[in-house]
Fold these 2 entries.
Entry 1:
Amino acid sequence: MNPSVVFDQYLVAIPAVIEAGAEAKFCATLRQPSGTLVMTVTLMSREKNTTLFTHTSNEAFQTCVQFKAPLVQKEVQHFQVEVRGDTFYSKQVTKVMIQAYDPFTFIQTDKPIYLPGQKVNFRVVTMDNKMRPANQLDPHRNRIGQWLNESSNSRILQLSYSLDTEAREGPYQIIVSMGERKISHNFKVEKYVLPKFDVTVNTSEEVSIGQEDIEAEVCAKYTYGQPVPGRVTVNVCRPINKYFFPVIFFLYCSFQADKTGCATFSFNMSIFTKVDQKVLQDVLDIRAKVEEEGTGKLCFSFKMTHQCRIRISYVLGKVSFINMPKVWERGSNVEGKVSLTCCFQLICDAPVYLFTGQMRQTHSLQNLTTDSNGVASFSFSTDNFDQDIQLHVTAFYDRGFHILSMSQPSSPDIKTISSLEVQTNNKAVACDAEEDISVNYTIVGESPGSVDVIYLVSYLWVYYKVEHDQTFVCLLKNYLTEGQVSFKVRVSPEMAPEFQVVAYAVLPSEDVIAHSADFSTDKCFSNKVSVEFSPSSAVPGEETNMQVTALPHSLCGVSAIDKSVLIKEPGKTLDADKVTIFDLFPLKKSSGIPYEVDDATECLNVRPKRYVLPYPRQEQNDAYAIFQVKYMYTCESVKHNVNAIDFVVAPVFNMFVCICYFRDDGKRGVSLTVPDTITTWETEAFCLSSQGFGLAPRKEMKVFQPFFLELTMPYSIIRGEHFELKATVFNYLTSCIMVTVTPGPSSDYTLTPLSGDLYTSCLCANERKTLRWTMIPTALGAVNVTVSAEAVASHVSCDNEVVSVPDRGRIDVVTKSLIVKAEGTEMTKTYNWLLCPKGSPLTEEAEIHLPENVIEGSARTSVSVLGDILGRALKNLDGLLQMPYGCGEQNMALLAPNIYILHYLKGTQQLTTAIMEKATNFLTSGYQRQLNYKSADGAYTTFGTGPGNTWLTAFVVRSFAKAQSFVYIDPRKIEESKSWLQHKQQENGCFEKSGKLFNNRMKGGVSDEVTLSAYVTAAFLEMNTSQHDPVMNKSLACLKQSLSDLSNTYTTALLAYVFTLAGDVETRAHLLQHLDTVAVREGGFLYWSQTAAETSASLSVEISSYVLLAKLSASPTAEDLGYASGIIRWLTGQQNYYGGFSSTQDTVVALQALALYSTLVFSPEGWSTVTVQAPSSQLTFDVNQSNKLLYQEEALQDVSGKYSLEVKGTACASVQISATYNIPTPADVTTLSVKVQLEVNTTSESEKTTNMVILDIKMLSGFSPDPESLKSLKHGLLVSRVEQKEDHVLVYLEELPKDTPINHSLDIIQELPVDNLKPAVVKIYDYYQPGPKADTKRRSCWLNRRRSFIWMLAHEKNMKL
């Protein structure tokens, strides 16, 4: 506006920031033209000028013009307004920013919390058509999964990631990267048990310090909505300020819940006000605990991050001015009223004090007394005032303020005291409805005439979109004119969650007055989405129909989650009512215009509000501030430009797994089978369409059996034991029923009734009844126990009431599995052959003798055949060893064999999709688990703590490097580990030992340094590091220094492999020649042992495998392959039932060697027939190219005796005969005290400690370890790790010192009584040397595999081990 011209006035408003390519608006006002004027509006950039508006008029006008912003990335352009007439000319130029914004994106997971081992399903929702990389980070910022260049034509990208069973607990993060932008979503991994019921505390959010009694209610309800019978315990605490000594002020009380599952209690506030209030926080914390009747299960109403907290208020009432004038004139009396509203239903009897002046220089004006309505009137003379009057009123601890502006004639030199005020509404405005908006005006000292009041409505979804613009005329008749104008605003979904109304007027004095107000709306969307179930509730297993309604051609994501999960981890949902969905949107409300477009000069003649302390930073209502803050603001675009053609319901949760489509009617029904779980499912549905986003109100589907059955039984028992099977029937009907409870027939067990004639009996409303049988299993293995309960018709009345039969869910059938194990200890014998007939039949014989004390019925013998020596390992990728995998090295025994087998199958073109999926799942899981043992410096440790382990780090990094071609491995982790290893290289080229040497028996004629350096060097060479690399040059030089001493066969074999990889032909030949001289040749078998006296099978497998790798890693000749065949025959004979070997290390190296050999000798042709002759039966197996990887296994009728086999054809066949049986435990041991005398030899007299030792404690039937005792055991002497696997507790002992007893204890608790209790077996063994032989001449502290047993038998409910 040009202030030098009196009569020609104009005002133009435009957003400070405009979205590139979007529709934008500016508003222009011209008033009191002195003649014909031409207004031209131009948008100017460096490239071109665009005329947006030209209008010629000799009359006043007000209009808003829409235009399309230029499509640029980010650019400041100039907005020019030119007004020209015969006697008038004005030009104003201001800056505007044109900016492109990234699309809106959010991430949704199917749950907020997961158990280790569960699958994380997640969706990425965006308006772009291309997604770039999505990453996952674990609690230690390790990248554990990555998807690159993922795209979704449907705008919803759906992916999943399986967590490892050993995944670390804590927060995880999914990160979506789109160019430079990153969006993240958090979820938790935790070992949790879902709660059966929820506990809520209902009370006021705020209480007064003056209240006497405070009431609260605690309620507990099952997830299916029924009340929980039980006892409520409540703690009320007022916390201490952290600066004071932590004295506890609390109240404890206990109540019985009523039939509704609730208990009401009250307490006196004075309990918490007896101490100096400065010491205490102004809050009350309420903790409620409910113990379920009958089961004793607990559920707490709060966690550390979510407790029931009540604020304590010191405000006993609110005081304010009412019916007050805004302007005062000299010589007049000011009249007004004060209103006092008392809080918390307290009695209002406090005095009211009236003051004038600045906040810190107030003067008492009057003392007032309120009437029965809490109102006091006052009047005072203005004779002693000559400026604005600031009034203060105080009562209780509250204060009210009001400013009276002094009336003065309007003048260009005096700022106006006229004002506008947009009236606000405390309630949210309904969507798709009209809202009445009122603007109060006070115009002072203006000349008679008229004033146009102009209002604009804008909202935050788009850049200053003017939805409404209108002019109202106010007639000025007197010196002081007050009044109100009203108008209606139709609230559309695009205006949610908040819109603004800006009102302004240009006064005759050329002053501009303005005011704005924010209005909140209901949380609504342009796409109306709803989900309905028919029927709305169901019984388990019942069919239901889900109806989804949205705009035609929408794309929708529908999810359902068990309400128990939300009780455990509330929040983390898309919820319009909680505003969480709006929080996800990139919405930003500006507090001013960007500095790039800020104009220094003010073109408006405005009066800033005169503030009074203590609120100088409240909302600014002067015109210039309004147009800077409210009128010109920025936000990020969230327009949904979706080109989806079909509506897709694509759920990711366990309850619903379906995809369906519809075209034009906006509705789709999906038939679903309700899960067999009694709970409440809560849905979450959102939709995208070309018209925008939509979120359905959350809908519940209650799955409930009107009466249902629960079985109570142990996880497992030993044959010969028996227990009390309990079946509890619950009736949640409103009437009595006649229930018949019947166990299913089975030949696997016998049941003896213990409940008399109650198996058909009355069960009235909200009652439960427990029925019992004595159960004696007769079969081994997994036994399914089935019991059914049925509501039957009956003429017998119950409690003088006629029994009813429910229309739905009148039968409930429950089946649970019971593991029945044979008595004693399981033993296994295996015989392996690799037979390659090459046209001539080959035969072999084996004879199996079972011990005399074998337990009847426990023996089973089978024969298995494969056409590939790696087929058995391929079948058992998750269990090559029946040993625990609880440390970093053992985990690698799961991961590494997958890599070698995959490389073999890929190299021989046998890799199928199914095998690839299975193996990569194990690789991904192993990679994720291995990161648990990684240190920040890149090293890996055995149990995730302590100094980095040189050998283990090399093992990991070589494996990760090989795995990269199959699964995502973060390359940064490999580089970090390589760098750590390089820093461990010493001056002499060898690598420094860090961490415990993995196997004591590898020590021998050379130092540990040479063996370790050879292993690290091999790892680098396997990663294709050049032998000319400085690190390799130094390490190879170090290794050559040790070649004068070849007494350690293990180290010699490893060196032969290293120099083969390095291409040192001469050194390799020298080492292999020496190894050939010390080889053991027995028939057609060829293998090596550490020394003539040391015949450890585990070490022999490793040594022989390294020789095999050395022979085959350098372009082997036919002679080399022939030499290798003797090693292969011996190695395959050492395999266990699962395809592995004795320990982790020999399994990994042997399978690497076998994979290399199999790749070299692979032939896509050939067949063979295997015939197995048992004493009384014969089996035949066919092996060909189409089934060579197929695991063929048959049980033999004869569990012992002489077996012969014959192989005919042209292809090799891997054959295994396996016998498994149990032997009894001693019957005379009756104590839980454990004393073990260990008798095993060592390789030298100087050996002072063992390798790692595993203590495997089997629980007695019906018992479980005490959680607190288990926790204490984890901190025991030399205990590295303790884990619980089903009914076993595994204790990892770092080592055991020679001749030094180590004592540990473990408490076990009886959960269910079991009669005729059998002994449970405790095993202890050396992890690395579980071989069958032991030399009793020397004593040490480590054991033979499966040879040393400790038995225990319990007679009390709580016992110590």
Entry 2:
Amino acid sequence: MLSQPKVSEDLYCHKAETTVLFGQFVVFQTLTSDVVEIYDGSSTDSALLSSIHGSHSGETLPLSSGNKITLKFTTNGTEAAKGFHFVYQAVPRTSASQCSSVPEPRFGKRIGNDFGIGMVVLFECSPGYTLHGSNAIRCEAVPSALAQWNGTVPTCVVPCGGVLTERKGTILSPGYPEPYANYLNCAWKISVPEGAGIQIQVVTFATEHNWDSLDFFDGVDGNARRLGSYSGTTIPQLLNSTSNNLYLTFQSDISVSAAGFHLEYTAIGLDSCPEPLPPSNGQRVGDRYTVGDMVSFQCDQGFTLQGNAYITCMPGPVRRWNYPVPLCLAQCGGSMTDFSGVILSPGFPGNYQSSLDCSWRVQLPIGFGIHLQFMNFSTEPVHDYLEVRSGNLETGTVIDRSSGPVVPNSLFSTTHETTLFFHSDYSQNKHGFHIVYQAYELQRCPDPRPFRNGIVIGQEYSVGMTISFECLPGYTLLGEPSLTCLHGVSRNWNHPIPRCDALCGGNVTSMNGTIYSPGHPAEYPHFQDCMWTVRVPPGYGIYINFSVINTEPIYDYITVWDGPDQASPQIGQFSGNSVQEGVSTTANQVLIKFHSDFSTSGFFVLKYYAYQLRTCQPPPPVANATILTDDDEFEIGDIIRYSCLPGFTLVGSEILTCRLGERLQMDGPPPVCQVQCPAHEVRFDSTGVILSPGYPDSYPNLQMCSWLINVEKGYNMTLHFELFQTEKEFDILEIFDGPNIYGQSLASLSGDIETPFNLTTAGHQLLLRWSSDHGTNRRGFHIRYVAMYCSTPDSPQHGFVVSQTGGHLNSMVRWACDRGYKLIGKGTAVCKKTPYDFYAWDSPVPACQAVSCGVPTAPVNGGVLAADYSVGTRVTYFCNNGYRLSSKELTTTVCQPDGTWSNHNKIPRCIVIMCPSLSSFSLDHGKWRIVNGSHYEYGTKIIFTCNPGFYRVGPAHIQCLANGVWSWRSERPRCRIISCGDLPTLPNGKKIGTQNTFGASAIFSCNLGYVLTGSTVRECLLSGLWSGMETHCLAGHCGVPEQIVNGQVIGENFGYRDTVVYQCNPGFRLIGSSVRICQQEHGWSGQLPVCISVTCGHPGSPIYGRTTGDGFNYNDVVRFSCNKGYTLEGPSTAQCQANRQWSRQPPTCRVVNCTDPGIPANSIRESKIEHGNFTFGSVVFYDCNPGYYLFGSSVLTCQPVGHWDKPLPECIEVDCSHPGAPPHGVMSGEKFTFGSTVRYSCSGEHLLIGDSSLTCQLNGHWSGPLPHCSGDSAGTCGDPGTPTHASREAGNFKVRSKVRFTCAVGHTLYGSAERICFPNGTWSGRQPFCKPVQCGNPATPAHGRISRVDGTTFSHSIMYSCMEGYLLTGSPTRQCLANGTWSGAAPNCTLITCGDPGIPANGLRFGEEITVGQNVTYTCQPGYVMIGEDSTVARTCTNNGTWSGTLPACIVVTCPTPPPIPNGLLEGSVLEWGTSVSYSCLPGYELSFPAVLTCTGNGSWSGDLPQCLPKFCGDPGMPAKGRREGRSFIFKSEVVFSCSTPYVLVGSTTRMCQEEGVWSGSQPRCIEPTRTTCENPGTPEHGFMNYTTGFKVGSRIDFQCQQGHLLQGSTTRLCLPDLTWTGIQPSCISHSCKQPRSPANADVVGLDLPSYGYTLVYSCQPGYFLSGGSEHRVCRSDSSWTGKVPVCRVGSKSQEKTVKSVMGTPSPKINVPDDVFASDFVWKGSYDYKGQKQPMTLTVTSFNATMGKVNVTLTDSSMEFLLSGVYKRQEARLMLLLYQMRALAHSSLSRITDETWAMDGFVSAEPEGGSYVFQGFIQGKDYGQFGLQRLGLSMRENVTLADPETNGSTNSSSVAVAILVPFFALIFAGLGFYLYKQRKTDKAQYTGCSVHENNNGQATFENPMYNTNTKAAEGKVVRFDPNLNTICTMV
């Protein structure tokens, strides 16, 4: 029941009689003058239960005594309040033993349902509420009365504060869920057990913004650090404490409340972050989530981690991870090297994106391919596709292309590099694909089976093997018919596998076959027009059987023509799917055409076979004719004779013969029988018929015909007319009894004459003449003429009449045919009388047909050619393709008259054509075989294959062609040896072996200090691949360990069980093992650790502000900003530092204050703040004093920018305006504003009628109507006057006259519009007045101003304007209209914004506000710099909505061109940030060390600048008894040798140091002038020397070893002109293997190779090359040798370019100055240590010019050497000995272990005025050559070092003592590090260990190992037990 404001209201409640009512006010808030009364009954006359007012909550009422209550609510005055909410409930009446029912308290519950005497009911509240009242009541008995409870039901209320100690709980705003009250000041303290934190979850939150706030303090009271202060509706969803206490306060002000809040708190682990979920398609590694713990993530195969792989739980007010959980996404493309893997479409398993071009590259070791298996596949058909390419993306061959929804079959890529390319267009995205690949070793080429629609010939698919393909009948082979398996890196066929397709058309010549629809067995495509021509040998026809036909009816059809083209007769057109009859041709060719349209496909199968052509098709019947034939079948040579019926004339051939031409058919078309119009036809037959032209049709016009009939003399003729119908008089038949028109006219007939009728002639001749005009045509006439005898019959063609007995009745005639012809028809005829009573022969004249010899027997594999087989015909025999007629046989035969062939059936033979024998053809290293046929006859196919280790060039197969030649033309197959390609020489190693063909082997070894991994020996296999694993020379046993990003690796020894230590740079910490051990399998133990940023945790947010930033890790920057209405005081940014602290503390956010807006004159201001600061959100209300009205806005709000949203309003004084004066009246008073009074009086004798004074009232009206003065005479009323702005209609003012008033437009009439003059001289009603229409106070737009020109009444105007930063939209002026409204619509003031200012490419923008006056700042990303001088640029949003300035541009940092180095070249032209350049040297020079310079973000190059030092050839030596000129041994230096008298120099007189670093020529010697022979080289022990030609120049000696010994060295040696021997003096070593035959001119070296065996390595001596045999031979277990004896031939390989030694230009002889080692000069260069160049600097500290004594300091990256020596000027030579050394930080002294360590070198002057170089060798283990170049004077301070001689340190033993200093071994739990100290160096303080947990049992370091401020010390990382888990270092 809710209250409603009324003056008085009675509410009546009624329930059943057996119950009473229990009532309670949930909410009650009324004014003190407003009362609610509750009566115990149905009316206000009942007893009063309660009367309440004011504020109450949960107020309960006494139970009613009955089942009715009445509520009465009375209000007084105009003010309002919230009211009340009353609930009631019916409860049972009580009894003596039963108490009344107990209702449940609101926001609580009752425990117990038994209300009997003695029973107790308990109460408890919902979380967040507390119980007011007793928590239990008891039902007690009352004597002589009803049982009663001993207490009342308690209420549940929200406390204002409290102490909470449970682990979870609820905090509500007081009064919740009702709005909280004003003037609250509540505090809650939450305490949970120590070790736990508190997490607040906000369920609901709503308070008065800015005024009613909830504050959180991270501690026990309000003095603790404030976590936040919140009002309005903005609050974080979660808040966390950093301790086990949390303090909350809530304050509300004097007015305006809100819904309040509902908070839930729970105790959480103080140091734990929420459990991170593993990413989809990935896994999480790690299950500890406390502060500082780290978890890592990894993705499933095929997915790529996007984000951070490691996240750390951060400290701070909120337990959170420093990075979000990463994602595992399927990327667009990638590169894979694993032997198995997964490839997914981008976005899988979701849909891929549009417009993609992705490529995945799988790179495997050579010799492997991949097997691709498609698990899923779905793309948009055609448009989105996946290509698989064998090779790279640019040049690889497409081996498969897939598109659409069908999952492709698995496929093999047969090369070590495979690329998958995926393209999607702009539409229709699908799920994509999931592909699994697995590597496999390339052994054989892919199996081409199953080969659809064909067969594969050959089942061997290994390297070099050839297979062939053939198609099934009806299919055509597309591609190469033979394929060969290639060798090399790809195991594939030399051509794509062909295919057998049913083509659209073709030429077919086989005797039988099949024609398939295009694409069969698939359905044929649309829009096809295919034509097949089938041709068989002459004499054959073709039968076509429609085995299967299923086409779209009508629209897709097959057409067949009986011949080669469409001009031939069409046999038929076939379509649909019904069974079709077969068709035959009469020709040996048939044309078949298939057409399909744009829709509905199908298929068909046609089978055909050739058949012998024997019979012609019967010709069609001829009208009005009879035929004469032998029988019904027309075989070749048979005739048909045509005869026309009497009266008809035969047009065409009378006889047709069945002949075999282009097709088997009659030799002409059938004739026709016509009725002609002869000009003068003469007939001699005894009987006949004459018909009108065109009979039986109507005769034509304009005809003139005549017939002359002659019979034998003595006979006359009778004409029998059977029909006569002509046009009367115009179309006339004339009959003359005689031969011409001059004879007697028997008749002239025309018109319709009734028939039959007869005419008889007198003589034996008769002339008939017919003529028709141009007019009407009729049927004509039919006339039979008869002479009573049989006329003599004709003779048949090729026949004659044998006899005739006359022409009378029963006479006989006999016929016969010429020789070679036979009679067709009857040979005799008898003259008989016909039924028509005339005489005629009873049989027609017969015909004579040529005798046929029949079809001659064709030869096997041949045929015959003839048109027919009749007498005289010559038949020619022919042979099919590939056959020829035997030359001994006749090629023709003739049909003889006796019906036999002239050859008496002797059939010629067709002999198969033979190709030349191949017995003389030899395929070296290969073989050939016949795959079909035998010997070399036509059709024989021969396939060539090469032996293992060889491959074929030239044709793979040949066939014997029909012309008897082989198909190979001029090209012959050859087998070439397979090459595996060159194996590169190992960096830091050597390779023995120059051959790269099958069977060749290469032996590898490594330089000193390097360890070989992979295969020591690799052999070229028949697959074209090298055996074994790729060989590497590692620095040490494991090679240089991998570097880590943001860290470094410490350790210089990489041997077995040596260790290295990883450290991170400041600001990063190590994840993983810090120590890695070199293991036996040449790898470093464990995984490479990573350096991840340290984290500073969340910096906290300023109160009333927020913190933004993507990360809280090292170098990350966060930005602070304030909420609206607050301004920042303090830093705006902070950066995470290496010490895990933020560089600045969060700032404070001060609330924005507006200035006091002031109080307008005559106004009243209301505000919560009267004298304090008007903070953001403050509201002031204005009203005017009585007598004034408000113009402008009555409410002003303080804006976030510190100004009020609207200007001050104005209070305008109420003005009643001039009231006017009546006629004859006088008004006194000058003011017309509120409270002013004017007075009236009348002039003369006029009396004032009405009020004498009027007062201006609040409503702007005068207090009464205007008075008037009485009339001039009785019976009249005085003139009432006319109000201002009015018009009047008036009479004479007499009694009952009327006056009407009307106001002007825009004015309103107040008073009476019509007045009547009463008899008493007064006017009815009230005098009106016209007030201008009032438009009122117009709304002031937010952020705008309004001004008035005058007032706010009709016709007045107002003007609008906007505050700064806002733009007026709408009309700036409005006018008060007559209807009391303002014209138009109010304009708006919209905030001026400048739009997105943009972000430059590679730049950053700070600032998001885009309103007027706001700034944005630009900087460039690392590695980029802003164009111009500034590093930052600011832009401001201006009033016109545009940004000041222009968008800056960031260009990549470019470093200056790196400095050139003498004799060097710069490699690389890109000089942008992040790119690197390197240097190379000119020929003859080498880099002091490999150097790479990298362009850094500040525009400078990082890295050391190298030098190009001239190549050092070393000391060329001095011949005994000789001299040498020249002391420089560098590139281009020249030395000259000479001998002392009388010795003679042999060898090179002059030698030059060449660019390869070797001396030209040969080493000279000085010999006695009498010597002419070489010295005896000696016989090797256990060997023999053959020197039959002696030792003179040019002589050759041969060496051999005894049995059981092997020769090592040169097998032969030659005496050269300089009297020296070539080669190496051999030796004979004992061995179990047999001595192989030794080749001449070769050098032999024996090697015992592990796991390979004892190996002899052969190399040819200079001037010879290996032309055959094996370079390496290995001793087998049976003591025999692999390979063949090598052959060394004179000369060089033709394909090898002869490399000549090119002499350098001799340098000028520049002398080295004596003081080249003057003090303070700096020499820079490098030295070789374990095969690697190490940069070093040598500084001369002192130089004694007299003695040549030199003291130097040599430093490298880790060591400092103090050296001393004596410079020998004559030799330009200096040897420096070590007398003291010290290790720099992070290094060890392990390099120096040899007490004879020294630097020995020569000084040379560089040519062309260059500097000086000091080059030579370092004597010491693992050390090599060094080179230094003098650069200039040192810039350092002079340092005086004690002369080693003065310290007594001159001998080697003392030097050794200085090196081998004592050391302390600190052993703690198996400690593995030794710290070396100098005897005089203070021991660095040991400060303990820095260790944390890891998962591999080894130590992990978070901080740098060494204190960089400690003095130089020696230290070494040595071998130690890998099971140790603690490492202590200097920290």
